[in-house]
Design brief:
18 helices, 52% helix, binds protoporphyrin IX containing FE
Length: 491
């Protein structure tokens, strides 16, 4: 009797959940009836059949639908299964939509075995609280304290590249990747000149790339979204092996720091690593040990692969556009003369063209080409009316090549950033660091470190490359798979 009763209750719950799901889906489809659906949609599976193939094919498809969305006026419907996501490339809608969607799309949880409730993967009140607690760690004063590290690391990179001078084409990615990982570990964990440096190596970079590749594979394989199916898949095994490598670095450093009784030594140093600031929050009871570990891992994850990938494309684009490279070099000469002194904080605002070079590279090759969010409140902007719980995907790549950038949107023209009339009226058309309340917390850090690295590299080397050979893949971060070599000569 009890069994039948429980079965009945279960049936009622399943029916109720199904009815709510069907109602919400109907509401969304009805309210977005005017938004064009992307071509080749199939019943039940929607566009899932288009997201098959390797990560290069997936990237080609994402580019294609971003360009179609531009033609549609900035909005399209993409069906991942029976429910539509709203693909956005319209700069006018982008900001209000992003600010109404502070929760991440559920697929971000696929990264939580490593990053837990850290800033990238966290949602709701936890994200809000952590963002507030972490903001002081990214203030200008703290970042200025990192300049010595940025300069030292840039000199090390120049030195590491020197055997390649005059040797023809080579892949610069491994150099950039390890160097950026060392930089973020020094600034996030305070690692310089300790034995822990041996923990920073290609094994860590590889584990990170494999981890992200697995996440993309899971996103694109709809049945792996179900935890009980995924649990038994080989991808899960691989994920756990990568997570073990990735967590070992922060866990070891965190344990060691906590064992140090003489904290005064640490806080009296010229710069303060992010970890020290987080440990202070821990002492005040604001963050638990686990939360500190997750935020440190988040900063390492978000901070090194993004900057190094952005530099990778910048060097290829400068190598393919000698006139832009010469102009950047002339500006460096104006600021530094013949001296190869370190970059000081006063130099950075003077490097206006160099900043334009970086922004233009990030416009054409945004390191994070798409972000996906869940609308956390009913939204009514312009003619778009979305119920709470809808999914939006902002194609940063698409928006940064849209009509707002004019007829030469696909050309590499850093000088456009120096002429306000050549830029879109709406500044949100550039969203490489995302936009709104949940945009990149490390933007200033990234710009400071990239500018410093470019000063050191460009004043020593002349670079050659051919960006037309580039082939990319979607791995959350936009990564090249072919055509990404450069050659260098001494200046
Ligand atoms: C060229 C370099 C960089 C680019 C292009 C970039 C881009 C982005 C983008 C697009 C987002 C939004 C992601 C989303 O909503 O899914 C983001 C978030 C974030 N970035 Fe960056 N980033 C860069 C460098 C950095 C650096 C150097 C750090 C740290 C040192 C950092 C830390 C973060 C964090 C913690 C978040 C999550 C913010 C939140 O949700 O509150 N990023 N970044």
């Amino acid at each position: 009797m009890l069994g039948i009763f429980l079965l009945l209750v279960l049936l009622i719950i399943v029916c109720a959940v199904g009815a709510v799901w069907a109602w919400e889906r109907m509401l969304l489809v009805h309210r977005t009836a005017h938004v064009p659906t992307l071509p080749e949609v199939l019943p039940v599976i929607g566009h899932a059949h288009k997201l098959r193939g390797d990560q290069t094919q997936i990237w080609e498809y994402l580019k294609e639908i971003s360009l179609i969305t531009n033609k549609n006026g900035g909005l399209s419907k993409l069906y991942l299964g029976p429910t539509p996501c709203i693909l956005v490339t319209d700069p006018e809608l982008a900001l209000p939509l992003m600010n109404a969607s502070l929760d991440k799309f559920y697929v971000y949880n696929f990264g939580s075995s490593w990053l837990g409730e850290g800033l990238i993967t966290g949602s709701g009140p936890t994200w809000k609280r952590h963002r507030k607690l972490l903001m002081p760690a990214f203030n200008q004063h703290i970042l200025n304290g990192f300049l010595d590290i940025f300069n030292h690391q840039s000199s090390m990179l120049v030195k590491a590249l020197s055997p390649q001078v005059g040797k023809g084409e080579f892949e610069h990615w491994p150099y950039l990747s390890v160097n950026a990982l060392e930089t973020i570990c020094q600034t996030a964990l305070g690692l310089p000149d300790t034995e822990d440096e041996s923990l920073i190596n290609e094994k860590y970079s590889d584990a990170m790339e494999n981890f992200l590749d697995n996440v993309v594979h899971r996103i694109m394989t709809i049945w792996l979204h179900l935890e009980f199916v995924y649990k038994w898949s080989p991808t899960k095994d691989s994920e756990m092996k990568n997570v073990a490598v990735l967590k070992s670095l922060s866990t070891k450093v965190l344990n060691k720091r906590k064992d140090q009784t003489n904290d005064a030594d640490v806080s009296d140093t010229k710069f303060k690593a992010f970890l020290e600031i987080l440990l202070e929050q821990g002492k005040s009871g604001n963050l638990s040990d686990q939360e500190i570990r997750e935020e440190v891992d988040t900063i390492i994850a978000a901070g090194h692969d993004t900057s190094s990938t952005a530099l990778l494309y910048t060097l290829i684009l400068l190598g393919s556009h000698p006139e832009a490279q010469e102009r950047a070099y002339e500006e460096i000469e104006e600021v530094f003369g013949d001296s190869d002194r370190d970059v000081q904080k006063e130099d950075l605002p003077k490097l206006i063209y160099l900043e334009a070079v970086i922004k233009e590279s990030l416009r054409l090759y945004p390191t994070v080409p798409l972000v996906a969010r869940e609308v956390d409140t009913d939204v009514n902007v312009e003619n778009l009316n979305l119920p709470k719980g809808s999914t939006i995907v902002l194609s940063i790549w698409g928006m940064q090549r849209g009509a707002a950038w004019g007829a030469a949107a696909g050309d590499y023209r850093p000088a456009r950033w120096l002429d306000p009339a050549a830029l879109p009226e709406n500044p949100n058309a550039f969203a490489a660091f995302s936009i709104g309340k949940r945009s990149c917390i490390g933007k200033t850090y990234a710009m400071m470190s990239m500018k410093t690295t470019l000063v050191h590299l460009l004043r020593r080397y002349r670079i050659r490359a051919d960006h037309t050979k580039l082939v990319c893949k979607f791995g959350f971060v936009l990564k090249p798979v072919a055509g990404h070599s450069i050659s260098i000569e001494l200046r």
